[in-house]
Specification:
Elements: E1 11-15, E2 19-23, E3 30-34, E4 54-59, E5 63-67, H1 68-77, H2 79-105, H3 108-123, E6 127-129, H4 132-139, H5 143-155, E7 159-162, E8 165-168, H6 171-177, H7 181-185, H8 196-202
């Protein structure tokens, strides 16, 4: 667990090849997903030092980390970083709104397909590990419902799912199975990679 609602934000995390889920409540569905394109803890940039979400690692990998104090100092000294993070914060709000709508109105199978595609985008791999329990938690459904939704995707050879290891076999087919939310929110946030601000962060102690 990287952050908990109501507790101080002590670090900002910049994923490299992992995916981090943002959950509004202890048992609620996912409202955000962060990968290489973004960061966790950016509410510090808005002057908020207490987390409003639960942040947990969804797909393991590596990430860079800064203390809240170091981030605050760097943020106020770097206008380029400020612009990047304000744009990213706006994109994350759009993602949260679309995710909530998706969770309310779309079928579980389509939501699962969308969620797997988003995870793949953020870890930059067609193969990753996810437990059935985590899948159920992120979608806000029972484990049995995850099995019911994943079954047709496996039968159509869109994915393979064995002992927590998911492999996307037919990406175009999976995109067709996903709800339209995927095309609206798939890695739409401005990327921090390659910018002068991100290079400054990466070289910070």
């Amino acid at each position: 667990m990287l952050q908990e609602p109501g507790l101080p934000i002590r670090h900002v995390y910049f994923p490299v090849d992992c995916a981090i889920s943002l959950v509004a409540t202890i048992e609620g569905p996912e409202v955000g997903l962060v990968g290489y394109e973004g960061a966790v803890g950016i509410s510090l940039a808005l002057g908020v030092d207490v987390s409003s979400v639960r942040a947990l690692v969804q797909a393991t990998g590596t990430a860079m980390r800064m203390t809240a104090a170091h981030f605050d100092k760097t943020f106020h000294q770097c206008p380029a970083l400020q612009r990047e993070l304000y744009r990213y914060a706006d994109a994350k709000l759009a993602l949260a709104r679309q995710t909530v709508t998706c969770n309310c109105f779309h079928a579980v199978e389509a939501r699962l397909a969308r969620w797997l595609l988003m995870t793949s985008d953020r870890v930059r791999s067609e193969e990753f590990f996810l437990t059935q329990a985590l899948l159920a938690e992120m979608l806000g459904v029972r484990r049995a419902t995850v099995n019911e939704a994943a079954g047709p995707l496996q039968q159509r050879k869109l994915i393979a799912y064995i002992r927590g290891k998911i492999r996307i076999l037919d990406r175009k087919g999976l995109e067709a199975a996903a709800c339209r939310c995927y095309t609206r929110i798939a890695v739409s946030a401005p990327s921090r990679r390659g910018s002068s601000a991100s290079r400054g962060l990466a070289s910070s102690p």
